[in-house]
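[job 4471] stage=fold_predict status=RUNNING
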Amino acid sequence: MEFWDIPAEKITPIPLACDRAHFRPLDLPQRLDPPYFLYLGRPDPYKNLRRTLTAFAEVAKGNEWEFWIAGSPDPRYTPALQAQAGELGIGDRVKFLEYVPYAQLPTLLNGAIALVFPTLWEGFGIPVLEAMACGTPVITSNCSSLPEVTGDAGIVVDPYNCEEIAEAMKAIANDSDLRSRLSTLGLQRAAQFSWQKTGQRTAEVLAQFL
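[job 4471] inference complete, writing C-alpha cells
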C-alpha cells in the first residue's frame, strides 16, 4: 500500500500454508548429537545469513552447538559465507548441507534446536510455518510478512541486530521450558493455516470479478 500507493480496499491478503500431514512432530531422540540450529532456504543476501553467522559465532562459544544451512548453494554467495565462517573461527561448526530433498525436511526440522530465519524480506515465509508445524521453535524477523505468519508463537528479532539474534538463540538453547512453550504455540499457530483456506479465499476474490 505504501510503496505503490494502492488503497486498502483493493488488497486482499491471502496467507499460504504447508502440508501438515508431511510437516509434523516426529518421535526423535530428545537430544541429537551434535545439537544444531537450522536455516532453511537460499543464501541470497536478503536472507541475512552474514549477520546470522556473526550472531552464531557469539552463541557458539563454550558449547557444542552447530549451525546447519540447508538449501541449494549459489556460487555468487555461498563461497563468501563459507569464508566468513572460517574467518569467525566457526568453520567447523557451520555445515552447508546444500539441497535437502523434500522428504527429509521434516526430520531435519524436528531435530533442530530452532529454525533461525531472520531474513530481511519475505513474501510469506513458508519455512517458518513448516517449522512450527513440526513443533520446532522459531526465531524470525520483526519485519515484512514474518510477524503475521509467526504471531506470538516464535521469537521475533530485529534482523539487523546480531546481538538480538544471538540472545534469542541462547535463550531457546538454554531454556527447555521456553522450547516446550514455543513448540506448543507453534503447533497451535500452524493449525490455523491450510491450503483449503488459501484456495477458498482466492476463489472468493475471483468470484467478485466473474
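[job 4471] summary: The chain has one domain: 29-207.
[job 4471] exit 0
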